[in-house]
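ok so i was messing around last nite and threw this chain in just to see what happens. nothing serious, just curious
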Amino acid sequence: MTTASAHRRALVTGTLFALAAGLTWGLVFVAPLLLPQYPALLLSFARYLAFGLIALPLAWLDRARLRGLARSDWIEALKLSSVGNLLYYLCLAAAIQRAGGPLPTMIIGTLPVVIALVSNRRDQARDGRVRWRQMLPTLALIAAGIACVNHAELQQLRQDPHADLGRYALGALLALGAVACWTWYPLRNADWLRAHAGRSPSTWATAQGLATLPLAAAGFAAYWLWSALAGDTGLRMPWGPTPALFVGLMFSIGLLASWLGTLCWNEASQRLPTTLAGQLIVFETLAALAYAFALRGRVPPPVTLLGVALLVGGVLWALRSRPQLRRLAPQA
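result:
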């Protein structure tokens, strides 16, 4: 297989894995809307408690490869789990419950632009560098698409005399916190995966689930204890007012969004430059919007469909860009 054909194959396969990750990650935007009476802190601990429990049987099946991970690898998995899992979803769920679905989706939708800008400078020695003039059309299309998708929602917010602008502002700040967490996570995760190219992405996804489990279990238990000491908090712990929906959703997104989504993203990160992979997070935004409108039971307005077309156009344009590695000066 020639270098060009191998590059093309990695590009296509990596893009498909990024698409699959986006489709699963879009589900996490739905849970806070379906469970508005559950605090974001409880949702975050419960989701990753489910993820950790799902990882246990997977870890037993993959125990031989997990034994090959060093202590430093487990520490890195713990860091990634703390920031990219627990803290990220805490910020995201709290933002959605305070500002609704569209505003946090818009802010999270800037991740492709933010990650592309950061990684194009940070990782150029490893992945090569895409010229800024090559990136500009891609970033402009994605940014315009995000603006169009959320235009109608923001207009509705401005026209609502009963809107709590302070609550929406807090939701926006929390969404920015989620962006910071998930700018750091894929960069550090890609560092480990590219440095350990021989490691299985599924093993690394399971390792992150195991690392998350004690943190999530301790957090869930602490929240349960605090709820009992505080008295009437409006929740019947441990499962709340709608236990079947709560447990079912937590295990569904724990399996699909957390483990399967992480596995697909790890596969994509091993095949794609971080700058390109970062732009493909736009699939998560598209999936989240599709699920939100399906939940509402209505067709998106024309401006939203235009935004989707622009987002897709930006992704297709990004796939045409090939990073150029820096040439080292010959040593005397």
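not much to say yet. The chain has 15 helices and no strands.
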